[in-house]
Records
---
Amino acid sequence: MAFNFNRLDRRRFLRGSGAALALPLLSSNLPLSASNSAGRENPKRMACIYFPDGVPMPLREDPAYQDWSWFPHGGGTEFTFTKCTDAFEPLRDDLTVLSGFSHPGARKVHGHRNADQFLTAAEIRRDGPYKNAVSLDQVYAEHVGDQTRFSSLVMSTDGGIGTPRAAQTLSFNRAGRAIPAEQSPKRIFDMLFVKSNVDAARRLANNESALDEMLEDANDLRSILSSDDRLRFDEYLDSVREAEIRVQKAREWVNRPLPTVDRAKMEADISPESPRLYVQTMLDMIYLAFKTDSTRVATYQIGRENGAGVSDRLARAVGFNLAHQLTHDTKNPGGWENLGKYCRFLNEEFARFTTRLKETPEPAGTGSMLDNTLLLFGSASSAFHLSRNYPLVLAGGRNMEIKHGKYLNYAGSNPISGAWSGGPEPYTKKIEQEDQPLTRVFVTMLQQLGMETNSFAGATGNFPDLLS
């Protein structure tokens, strides 16, 4: 088969027996005007990854404070990670930890409802009519989505949209309507990388590789690639093959129905490592979607609040039963450490994903993929589902003039924390220092992603500290 690169763009596929695999972005298949030259603009991507129910925030006098506080000790460029967050240490110069940010309209919202407004900043009342707004990812998708095969990738562990005030998706359109999230790695893989007819679908159902029928086509293509692109192309095929294997394993966990048997039987049926594999595979889908330039916008809601859904069982990755219960057991001996170990698992997987982007040269561009990608990772709760002082990490974007290596603490020296006594919940208490509006971070992200805007959700102003 002869290839004509004048007709080959980044949306072209390798083909075999009715299946098709998306090509990676290569310098050889770009028009001259888009080749790797001084005038070329790199793609700019954004991914937002959310976890529910907050983080460990023991008081200073608590023995767990030194090791298991989620927020670092110190500030500015002089700070140290704890055991909860030390997975970020190798990425220290590629990320910024943020403290003291929240959405003003959500500060009195109970933490069981926070995913709804994490990327929208909407004021969602406890009851009455439900009204949301457009999410950060969809604002950027409107700007850049027509340049890729998919305008955005919307994922969550629980899938679908959930219910009002209990969202199972982070993404909302201009009308404030929830955009359904995909939870199956297999369906995401096929959607992104394999277009198939009935015969191909049957072959894939029999666990045959999507790549097997395409190797002859791939060899023809490899023969006319540059040496650099040949290396990138082979690494891409290896990545897809690896992801394909992981998808087959991970879908066994997410497709398992919610248990109706006793807890002991449930423990025996599910491997503690399956949830970790599942989270890794979902993040791998974002990596491969970005690498093939199938989309430049992605969201992944790792879990939903209030302990409902399959996502609550992710705690089994580190030997616990249910994730949400860990947040209510912090007043028990060892409670902060247990919650810290679960949060460390999430931090490790985010760090692994971020590192993979950092170690991958930008296809047909400059720097690494991480240099051209903004990653927002965090929760809309701090301790006890408190809707203030969100735990947040912003990573990547070196080629977008984002300056990292800092812990920006605007929460003061004594944010609300400690073990909940069971009395009035902390979100109802008056605090001495108001948070910074998180929308200022959103505006900064959109500006550095190339959008001309100075407002988000009706709030104006950016956050220059991220740029200096």
---
Amino acid sequence: MPLTIGLWQIEVYHRAIHATRQPDPKCRLCDGTGGGWEPTHFGPDWDPCRCIDAIRHHRIPLWFRRRWIEEPF
């Protein structure tokens, strides 16, 4: 079950913590939906709103895994 802190949704997994920024619910442009479908020549395309950043997902590893190097026989 995700934990919400402000505009951030935090999820804890076995090996990492994932933090995702949600759209601003008070945004006048998108009303909190994060964008909308815009008609284009090739069909509808999702147009993100300015209230969410380009990088809105962060992964924080809890510990590093061992790297297994396979040697040729």
---
Amino acid sequence: MAAQCVTKVELTVACSNLLDKDVGSKSDPLCVLFQNTSGQQWYEVDRTERIKNSLNPKFAKKFLIDYYFELVQKLKFGVYDIDNKTFDLSDDDFLGEFECTLGQIVSSKTLTKPLVLKNGRPAGRGSIMITAEEVKDNRVVVLEVEARKLDNKDFFGKSDPYLEFHKQTGDGNWVMVHRTEVIKNNLNPVWRPFKISLNSLCYSDMDKLIKVECYDYDGDGSHDLIGSFQTTVSKLKEASRSSPVEFECINEKKRQKKKSYKNSGIVSVKHCEIIVECTFLDYIMGGCQLNFTVGIDFTGSNGDPRSPDSLHYLSPNGVNEYLTAIWSVGMVIQDYDTDKMFPAFGFGAQVPPSFQVSHEFPLNFNPSNPFCNGIQGIVDAYRACLPQVKLYGPTNFSPIINHVARFAAAATQQQTASQYFILLIITDGVITDLDQTRTAIVNASKLPMSIIIVGVGGADFDAMEFLDGDNGVLRSSSGEPAVRDIVQFVPFRKFQNNRTKESVRHDVFA
């Protein structure tokens, strides 16, 4: 019998005394969480943000993981110095790692251990501290914050401010739970709206103190404190756009030195809302029906399918990266699709008989019935379609996104069981209608719809990362913000050798 999930656990990571791999500056660390379920192979679960110029990083991003009391869950935390934009960790300097079980962390609550190198030797004096907290509350605090008249900490320009939110532990220590983006050269910054789980922010106690610190970002890691204040979620909830809640940003050292000191600026909370974020499992158990559609990139940048260098080349064993990606994601999603009939489309190819370029042609060439029977049906249609079309271009995502969005919009008008639409786009990463795609995604964010983009090959995926709203709210070409983040981008190579249901489900539904 399968083990029952006891709870969800949130892991917070900090490091100290990391190796310095950069000349003229400090390492730019990032922490990667790996899990081992098979007893042999590690697969990547998630990554923290990269912190520039720091040998003592405190990572704001948390790792959320299911905790099974009955299982030994092997974890590995790898720390890397990131000096490029590639996803492949082999390009980056390794700063050390630590292996343990989730049970060891949970039983310790906070576990501090030395980092070691691949050969098992100490990674200098580097150490890692991992804190575990059970997540019992799925409420989330949504905040919109700005500031005005902040102190200027720079000689040749204005401050580059950002905020850090801290909660207080039972022993009185402060732990950072969120860090905003940096606003360059601005004493009146407006930060992007952001979300923090209520449990992370204040242990779900709305009257528990929160400390907010405002810093001036410096490229060398020596960030200057502008000022700070303390508040509670109860106080923040009083904010509205017509009547914001405002706090004086106080720098205690400056106040002690200057008798005339008032404050170091005003931080204004324009909006604070507490919402309940339902999980994927909540929707499924609530009777939601999933509708899965596949879109495949047939543009010329993939290379001639007859050449072994092409991403569409069918190897002697009959597979390529496109087919493997279809299986990897499709095998997870098909468990939740009731009829297992999946529409499948191609884009960016010249299609018979007229060989006009199309950006939403059915793989089976039947516009009135584009459905394929199961994942095997999609695979069969792809193999039959490939030799009949001519790879061309440009690479336009917006037509197929709008295509699925029309069905999602129609579903919202029906009074039947709830439906949710998932569009899987498999692409080599070169996109030409970015503005139209941004607008299509923003419009689709209002609908019961999500988009999974799987990038195959080794192209530059910056555009795909941009469409994924993890690093900020995506906006349309006219500036309209997305209502929610509906795009999940996954580089195929991230899980191509780890195609277990668990690893793929985490990657595409994270």
---
Amino acid sequence: MKAVGLTRYLPIDDPESLMDVELEKPQPGGRDLLVAVKAIAVNPVDTKVRAPKDKIEPEPKVLGWDAAGIVEAVGPEVELFQPGDEVFYAGDITRPGCNSEFQLIDERIVGAKPQSLDFAKAAAIPLTSITAYEAFFERLELDVDGANSGETLLIIGGAGGVGSIGIQLAKLAGLTVIATASRPESTEWVKQLGADHVVNHYEPLRPQIEALGMKYLDSIALFNNTDQHWEGVVDLIRPQGRIVSIVENKEPLAQSMMKTKSATFVWEFMYTRSMFETPDMIEQHHLLNRVAEWIDAGKISCTANQVLSPINAANLREAHKTLEAGRTIGKIVLEGWD
């Protein structure tokens, strides 16, 4: 089968950083689905895993953790799907990724593809929707059905992939959303997605929040550069409020003000359930199905903003390069094989 992989971890400008390869088609066992991949999306995790380092893989390593496709075959323990079903999923970072014609994936982290979306648009949804959903409704303990309606939520990195779907999920739950953006096009993007207010994350946050008539915020989601924004968000979080981050820190995060406020800081990592095969692993299946229902009902819109074709090493290198520039709005998707 066709695939895009790497054996060395190189700068993205090097043509060997991602290469077209031929691999053996896998066979499903247990609760695995064998999915014929029709479209994929690229995320910051891809560039982080691929980042240059002194390591050589004995066999091509396949990246990619956002896909949509058709179930080709199922393992003997599969209960949720059958061959021919159209699916979408983010995958498991401990297993080969979706940058291949066929992929094995545990059915418990797979959802039924939204019927209203084609494969390319569906591939843009899983990783970011899982991340934002878990961040808001599990880590921040906000109520998905609206019990926290009217409370304030600041999203740092509103125009990125997770922020783009996160704004929409937060508005579905009735929250007052303040999103950060720094350019006219990204500001317009987050407004179109439903953000109630927009602030610039390159400028001090408190004066901008106070200009909106607010002193403290009920919840804060760090979807961009935890180190850069830590001091500002700790200042803004209300006493007994909650902060969630998806971006690992490089420097120590001062905790004294968090203690004074009895505030909570929690991490969100969407691969936790699949990495550790937690007893509630199937929650991601239910979550994706719920998101698909919202999309088909017109409550959430697709966040794909660029589609490349076909799926090959050259186009994936271009997508990685764009992500590494740090100015992406929405999601980058690739569809079809040569």
